[in-house]
Amino acid sequence: MKSDIRVCSAWRNRHDRPVYTLGSTCPDCGEPAENSAPAPFDPDDRYGEYRRALKRRNR
């Protein structure tokens, strides 16, 4: 599921807390906004192969 909520890409430097928006730019400073959702998985997951095998086995 893709999130429509975005956060200012420069909030750590320009704001005292995250500024969330639905637009493509920050309403306070005009910097570009980026997706606020974390990545769905880690490509460097060392145990991902085992976790997926266990999930397949338990079906």
From TrEMBL:
Molecular-function GO terms, alphabetical: snoRNA binding
Alphabetized SUPFAM superfamilies for the sequence: Nop10-like SnoRNP
Coiled coil regions in record: none
InterPro entries associated with the record: H/ACA_rnp_Nop10, H/ACA_rnp_Nop10_sf, Nop10_arc-typ
Biased composition (Basic and acidic residues): 43-52
Annotated keywords: Ribonucleoprotein, Ribosome biogenesis, rRNA processing
Family: Belongs to the NOP10 family.
The name this protein goes by in its record: Ribosome biogenesis protein Nop10
Organism whose genome encodes this protein: Salinadaptatus halalkaliphilus
